[in-house]
């Protein structure tokens, strides 16, 4: 691992200015109005993000600054908020180790932390009066440039997404007491690239969600999740928009690629389309290209749509799951049968209970049996975790220790806690 470079407060202004901002790869921030700890940059509540400053509170959010008694400058001041707030730092593409210290000498705190476009990093972290907790997680920051030439052809909605800007943005929810933050670029992480559609992409707005933005919660440092999925894509459009080229340009030997498609491939009706034609051929291309780079491909069959006949789920994907299974066997790559496992999950929930996993809100005139809300996405991410274990992938050693999950026994919806993010949309994502 390369040595880290830390900025002192005296250097930060110069390093954040102009072109030099892109050279800064490690930052240490001390939050609150008290004296800054040596080697840390003080961040006051009125520090608003700008391209010139290079860091600050973002999107009109602003916590309160508090000073407490004590001789430890890192823990004798802090910022607090009972509403969501964002903090952004200008950084180049790469994997970043993020260390947050949460707590208050004179109060409790309760925090959920998301990164970029609502990727779940920490959930329900509680500190008691006078106690502090430091948590570490990995955030992948991407841009659209491809080192081998060209750039990813983004959709219009992606042009304003936090996933594609030039910042690392953290969202702090619930009753957060933030004492300090360290961000360091790291090059020693195993990177897991996700290729998929709206059931995989980082959905930026409530109430939409996918398993790709929840899976980050289940890994310890050592693994970075690089979600390259986008709503409405098929294998063909993912490749055509140079998203596979992007993945191949940045992946290294030992990295992983999880690929889940099918929902939108089913709509392609050309002479050479179909589950055993273009769909299978493109999965083979993924397998060959990832192998050439020394990586490991994992094929994921498409998540089931909510479609019941009585109490039994109906397969809406035709032969596409079977085709994916056959390619996995042919190419000798790992398979997670999300079609079968999500079918078990929704049947266990039942025709009515399964509505809690989807964006089905009659009071908002929303009735979507394809796209998931945070609860449904969280349950699906747990299925992917169990698939990693079942395939004995080397990634399993980085998983957070927690009880095994059986989709036939889903978590109780009433016990799921999800603090909503400020961004909300009633517009359905592309794809169905």
From TrEMBL:
Keyword list, A-Z: Hydrolase, Signal
Domain SGNH hydrolase-type esterase as annotated: residue spans: 196-376
KW Signal (keyword) present: yes
SUPFAM superfamilies: Galactose-binding domain-like, SGNH hydrolase
GO molecular function: hydrolase activity, acting on ester bonds
Signal sequence segment: 1-21
Residue ranges of domain Beta-agarase/YXIM esterase-like galactose-binding in the record: 27-118
Keyword Cell membrane attached: no
Family, per entry: Belongs to the 'GDSL' lipolytic enzyme family.
Database matches in PANTHER family: PUTATIVE (AFU_ORTHOLOGUE AFUA_2G17250)-RELATED (PTHR43695), RHAMNOGALACTURONAN ACETYLESTERASE (PTHR43695:SF1)
Protein name: Rhamnogalacturonan acetylesterase
